[in-house]
Each structure stands twice: as structure tokens, then as C-alpha cells.
């Protein structure tokens, strides 16, 4: 009879139970039957019995046994690191696979596990730390432990500490950080929400905590401190109290002060910024698709580019995603936002409805003004709006009368509660476009692009809003048609010819033109989909249909400077752009600010309850070619092809 046939593997349901009984038996032998053990571990004079077959699951012991060292033949292994109870706990883990952990014994266990290369136990320690509540006190200890033993939780602990640095600075545990960790904090540009004055005080405390061992690192750390942003008051106080004496030699103190004097002090109470808000994200999956698809990518984020420090920061989220907003900031620091493409009209209504969203910075609250439906809004298309003192004016075109198709340029004042008062300025046609800017608290300048076949003229009107009289005609100019951008800055009008790379400025106050030298070859294509603004004789270019890059053109030096990208993940275009001045603390944060990760800029912001919160925005019928950037003039216009010298290779 062949007994080899029909063989079966038996006992599988009992394998786990058998393995459990085996390791429990071996562990019991270790504790009660030392005569059955073949190796002795000596720690702090105490002998711990074990089995080579179990210890070799640990790389440290496996290497020792396989290399044929004396420990293999003698059966004795001396460990000169760690505490006895910690080694006993690690042995228990090697036998049973479990171990008791607490914050009080964790470092001792990690010390032994790291020395013995017990990687699974280190992962278990990481899981234990991950299960502990993270706060401003525990994050420092977790950061130190995880850094010392290379645990995965280190990045999370460090980010938490950086995000709560102002609170962490108040705790004594921060003074136990290593020199490398302190240097990384001082050098981290994302921590701009913490003042350099606070960093200076922390650095002095950290050095004095262990002055004998840390004095050698003082000079390097002080140089890492951004002394240009330390206030004169803080520095004078430190020098007056002689707090640097004993920390640095006199020559080093003089070198640091000279380094500060050679820089520019940036302790400003206010900052000039460019606000970028709304717009459309470019998505290669939907670009070129019907507008209802594109509009699903509209943005409701606002960003600020700090012109003083040349960096981006996040601002507050708008109540609605707006595809083509206009942004203005009033003298009392309220941000006003309107969408040029008003909400979809009801099929039973001949009115275009426009809402104005206003953000009050002081109270961090949005409110929405719903502009009343009036006969003057019949067929009205918003082109721009302006804040003149505490008054709000809308500028656009609409039908002159209800029963005609003739159009006129209208200036509409928005009163409290959304009521309006309209002034008809002059006749226009469907292709004319209008812009406006302040001359002073009572006068505005209106810029009109008048189109006729393949030429256009730009006409300027000064209007006294106090009396709302007939606008006064200013100097005008004419030129052949080209891709032109009109920019408004402090009452001046800047005409930018994208095709010819020409730029000139008109000052309505003295009725004069100033022509800038021809713009040098840009590093990017000057696309009409990009956002442009002008400030202090510098031209700024942001984004575009396929871009999130930013550039500054310095007119006086005729050079292009590449700036940080807009903090978005894809291309951005059609955003509202506005130059303003705000308190420096509002734009102190870096786009990747760890503090904002835990405390969003929108936390505490109140939003209005809107019946149109889910409304979609769309373009008007007569502007249906808004997205055809290269053919948005006359159909007879020759197709524009960009010359080869317009791209910097």
C-alpha cells in the first residue's frame, strides 16, 4: 500500500495557538528555568537569561552570532547602554511581541531599541507617540525624541511646533532644542508670522540656558537671525542691558551690527500689496470646453503679493467663486468685490442683477449689497466700478431707453440698501469699453476705448462726482488696433501695447503723456489672459491661461525679474487685481505658513446668508467670445502671430 498518496497538511487551524504557546513557554524558561537558556545578557551588573534563537530575530544579536565573536562561544553578552528595566522590557517584546509604554519610559525603551537595531519596536514607539495628544508643550518633547531616533512622526511634530511657535516660546521645553533645530527655525522663511523681535528674545534665552556648551554656536545663530527686521526698540534694549556680553566677543557684536546697518530695516507698520482675487483656474481637461464647464473651476480665493518683501500670502475667501471680478479697497480699508459677469438673468426678467460683496477687515466679516432692479439696469453690462470717498459708482453701458437699441455709457451710484441713481454720460456702441479711476476724493477719470473698424481711439473724461455734471473731455489719442491693456494707478492711466511691447502713461491732472522705453524681451508671452498691474514705475504680470508664474518689469532699469509663483496648483487667469496699502501684520504670513495650516485665515470670518449662494455666473450674449483671447476684436482683423523675438529662450 502506498501511504504517500492523498497526503494532507493538518493542524493549520491550531498554528496560531501553537505559536503562542511556544513563545510563552520560551519566555517562561527565561524567567524560571535559566538552565534551559543558552545566553546571558549582562546590564548594569545584572544577568538576564535568554535564547539565541529568539535574540537572533534582532539584527544586532544576529550579526554578533553570525560573525563568530567571543560572545557566541562564551554565551555572555554585555550591553553598556540603557537602563536595566528598559532592556528587560525590550526582551519581553522580543519574546511576546508586546510591551508597556508611557511617556515616562519611552525614551529609555527607544535608546535600547535603537542600539539593538530593533526596527519593529521603533515603529511601535512611533505609533505610541502618534496616539498621544499634540499640544504646545508635548510637541517639543515629541520633536526632540523623534529627531534623535529618526521616527516618522518628526515632520508632523515639527510642523505643529512651527504652527504654534508663539505659544511654544513661552514654555521652558523649547530651550532644550538642539543647535540644528534652532538654526532651522531661524532660517525658515515660512515662519514670517513670528516677529524677529520674538526670535531674538528666544535666542537669548536658549543660549543662556546652557551657555558653556552653546557659546560656540552663538555667532552663527545671530547671523541667521534676520536683523534687518528686528525693531530698533528691541535691539537698543538688548544693547542697553548688555545681554550680548558674555555671549559674543566684542568683534562679533560689531560684525553683527555692521551687517544690520548694511541692510534695510523693514520694520514697517504698513505694506503695499497687490490683491489678486477670483478668476478661473486653467484645467487642460476642460479648457476649450463650453463655458458652463470652465466656470466650474472659478476661484473664490484671494491672495496678496507684498511689494515690500516680494512674497505671496493668503487672504480671506470670498463668499462666492467669481469668474471675472473687479476689486477695490476703500479709504477705510474695506475690500469691495463685484463680478463683471453678473448672475444669470431669469428668463422672465430683462434686468441684469449685480451684487457687491464687501469685506470689513477690522471685524473680519463679509456683507452683500443686492443692487435694486431699476430700468437703468435693462441690458446694462458692468465694465468697472470706483470708490470715491464713501460713495460707490458703477460704470458700464446699457440701452438709452427701454424701447430702443441705442446704447450709452452710464455712471450709476449705489446708495445705502442697494438703491441706485443713474447719470447717462454719452452714446456708445457694443464694442466700446470703459475704465475709471480716482483723481481725488470727488473727481474721477473715465477712460473710453472707442472702436471703429481696425482703429480705435482712447478718450479721457474728468467727472466731478459731487455735482454729477457733464464730463469734461481731456486729451485723446488714436492708433492702429493692437492687443492693448489699460491699467489705472493713482489717477494715472497706463496704456500697455502687448504686441509692440510699448507702454505710455497719461496724467489727467496735467493732461500730459509720458512714453516709457520699449519693453525688453519678456521671459514669457505677454498674453491678454494674464493679469497686469502697475505700481511705482514697475509693471507686474501674474498668471495666464496656462501659467501661475509672476514677473516684475522695472521700467527704469529695463529688466525683468522673476517673482514667486502664485500659490495655486494650476494656471490662473481673469482674476481681479488691485494695488492697496494694509497693515503689515495682515500680510505677514507665508503662503505655506504652518500657523495658517492650523489656524486658517478664514477662521472667525462671518459670511452673509445669500439666496444666490449657488448661482452660476455667465457672460452676456454679445460678449460670447470672451475666452477667444487671440480673436476678440473684428472678424476682419488679421490673425495675430507673435514675433519670434518676444520669447526669451
Number of helices: 18
Question: Oligomerization state of this entry?
Answer: single chain
CATH fold-level topology of the largest domain: Neuraminidase
Percentage of residues in helical conformation: 10-25%
Structural class assignment: alpha+beta
Named CATH architecture of the largest domain: 6 Propeller
Instruction: Give the tally of β-strands.
Output: 30
Rg, nearest Å:
35 Å
* End-to-end distance: 86 Å
- CATH classification class of the largest domain: Mainly Beta
Q: Could you give a short account of the major beta sheet?
A: 5 strands, antiparallel
Count of distinct structural domains: 3
Query: What would you call the shape?
Result: elongated
Pfam family, one: BACK
Keywords: Kelch repeat, Repeat
Biased composition (Acidic residues): 620-639
Region (Disordered): 608-649
Give the arrangement of secondary structure elements.
Layout: H1 15-32, E1 39-43, E2 46-50, H2 52-55, H3 59-66, H4 70-74, E3 76-78, H5 84-96, H6 106-115, H7 119-131, H8 138-148, H9 154-163, H10 165-168, H11 179-187, H12 196-209, H13 211-214, H14 218-224, H15 232-240, H16 250-262, E4 270-277, E5 280-281, H17 291-294, E6 302-306, E7 311-314, E8 325-329, E9 334-339, E10 355-360, E11 365-370, E12 381-388, E13 391-399, E14 407-414, E15 420-428, E16 433-438, E17 443-452, E18 455-464, E19 472-473, E20 477-480, E21 484-489, E22 492-497, E23 502-507, E24 512-515, E25 531-535, E26 538-544, E27 547-554, E28 559-563, E29 572-573, E30 576-583, H18 594-598
Parallel strand pairs: 1-3
Antiparallel strand pairs: 1-2, 4-6, 4-30, 5-29, 6-7, 8-9, 9-10, 10-11, 12-13, 13-14, 14-15, 16-17, 17-18, 18-19, 18-20, 21-22, 22-23, 23-24, 25-26, 26-27, 27-28
Amino acid at each position: 500500500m502506498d501511504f504517500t498518496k492523498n497526503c494532507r497538511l493538518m493542524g493549520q487551524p491550531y498554528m496560531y495557538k501553537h505559536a503562542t504557546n511556544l513563545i510563552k513557554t520560551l519566555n517562561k524558561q527565561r524567567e524560571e528555568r535559566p538552565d534551559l537558556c543558552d545566553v546571558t545578557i549582562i546590564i548594569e551588573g545584572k544577568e538576564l537569561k535568554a535564547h539565541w534563537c529568539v535574540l537572533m530575530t534582532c539584527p544586532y544579536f544576529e550579526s554578533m552570532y553570525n560573525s563568530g565573536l567571543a560572545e557566541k562561544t562564551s554565551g555572555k553578552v554585555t550591553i553598556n547602554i540603557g537602563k536595566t528595566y528598559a532592556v528587560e522590557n525590550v526582551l519581553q517584546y522580543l519574546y511576546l511581541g508586546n510591551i508597556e509604554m508611557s511617556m515616562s519610559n519611552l525614551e529609555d525603551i527607544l535608546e535600547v531599541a535603537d542600539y539593538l537595531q530593533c526596527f519593529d519596536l521603533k515603529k511601535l514607539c512611533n505609533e505610541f507617540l502618534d496616539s498621544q495628544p499634540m499640544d504646545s508643550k508635548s510637541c517639543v518633547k515629541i520633536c526632540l525624541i523623534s529627531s534623535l531616533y529618526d521616527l516618522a512622526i518628526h515632520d508632523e511634530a515639527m510642523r505643529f511646533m512651527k504652527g504654534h511657535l508663539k505659544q511654544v516660546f513661552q514654555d521652558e521645553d523649547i530651550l532644550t532644542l538642539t543647535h540644528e533645530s534652532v538654526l532651522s527655525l531661524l532660517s525658515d522663511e515660512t515662519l514670517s508670522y513670528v516677529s524677529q523681535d520674538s526670535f531674538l528674545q528666544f535666542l537669548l534665552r536658549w543660549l543662556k540656558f546652557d551657555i558653556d556648551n552653546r557659546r560656540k554656536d552663538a555667532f552663527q545663530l545671530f547671523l541667521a537671525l534676520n536683523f534687518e527686521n528686528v525693531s530698533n526698540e528691541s535691539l537698543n534694549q538688548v544693547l542697553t542691558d548688555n545681554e550680548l556680553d558674555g555671549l559674543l566677543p566684542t568683534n562679533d557684536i560689531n560684525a553683527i551690527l555692521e551687517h544690520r546697518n548694511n541692510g534695510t530695516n523693514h520694520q514697517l507698520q504698513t505694506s503695499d500689496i497687490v490683491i489678486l482675487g477670483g478668476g478661473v483656474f486653467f484645467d487642460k481637461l476642460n479648457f476649450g470646453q463650453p463655458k458652463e464647464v470652465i466656470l466650474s473651476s472659478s476661484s473664490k480665493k484671494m491672495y496678496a503679493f507684498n511689494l515690500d518683501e516680494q512674497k505671496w500670502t493668503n487672504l480671506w475667501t470670498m463668499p462666492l467663486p467669481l469668474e471675472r471680478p473687479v476689486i477695490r479697497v476703500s479709504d477705510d480699508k474695506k475690500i469691495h468685490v463685484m463680478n463683471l459677469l453678473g448672475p444669470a438673468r431669469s428668463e422672465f426678467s430683462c434686468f441684469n442683477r449685480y451684487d457687491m460683496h464687501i469685506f470689513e477687515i477690522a471685524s473680519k466679516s463679509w456683507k452683500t449689497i443686492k443692487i435694486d432692479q431699476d430700468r437703468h439696469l435693462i441690458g446694462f453690462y458692468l465694465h468697472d466700478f470706483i470708490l470715491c470717498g464713501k460713495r460707490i459708482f458703477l460704470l458700464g453701458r446699457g440701452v438709452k431707453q427701454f424701447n430702443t437699441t441705442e446704447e450709452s455709457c452710464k455712471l450709476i451710484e449705489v446708495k445705502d440698501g442697494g438703491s441706485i441713481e443713474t447719470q447717462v454720460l454719452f452714446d456708445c456702441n457694443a464694442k466700446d469699453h470703459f475704465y475709471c479711476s480716482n483723481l481725488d476724493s470727488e473727481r474721477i477719470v473715465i477712460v473710453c476705448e472707442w472702436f471703429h473698424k481696425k482703429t480705435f481711439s482712447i478718450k479721457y473724461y474728468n467727472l466731478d462726482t459731487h455735482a454729477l455734471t457733464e464730463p469734461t473731455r481731456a486729451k485723446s489719442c488714436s492708433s492702429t488696433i493692437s492687443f492693448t491693456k489699460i491699467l489705472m494707478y493713482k489717477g494715472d492711466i497706463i496704456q500697455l501695447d502687448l504686441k509692440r511691447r510699448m507702454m505710455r502713461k497719461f496724467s489727467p491732472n496735467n493732461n500730459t503723456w509720458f512714453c516709457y522705453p520699449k519693453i525688453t524681451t519678456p521671459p514669457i508671452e505677454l498674453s491678454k489672459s494674464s493679469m497686469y498691474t502697475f505700481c511705482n514705475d514697475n509693471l507686474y504680470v501674474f498668471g495666464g491661461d496656462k501659467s501661475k508664474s509672476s514677473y516684475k518689469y522695472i521700467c527704469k532699469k529695463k529688466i525683468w525679474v522673476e517673482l514667486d509663483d502664485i500659490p495655486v496648483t494650476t494656471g490662473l487667469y481673469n482674476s481681479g487685481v488691485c494695488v492697496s496699502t494694509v497693515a503689515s501684520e495682515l500680510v505677514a504670513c507665508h503662503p505655506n505658513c504652518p500657523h495658517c495650516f492650523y489656524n486658517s485665515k478664514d477662521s472667525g470670518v462671518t459670511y452673509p446668508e445669500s439666496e444666490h449662494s449657488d448661482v452660476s455666473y455667465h457672460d452676456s450674449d454679445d460678449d460670447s467670445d470672451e475666452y477667444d483671447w487671440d480673436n476678440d476684436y473684428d472678424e476682419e482683423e488679421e490673425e495675430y502671430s507673435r514675433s519670434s523675438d518676444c520669447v526669451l529662450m
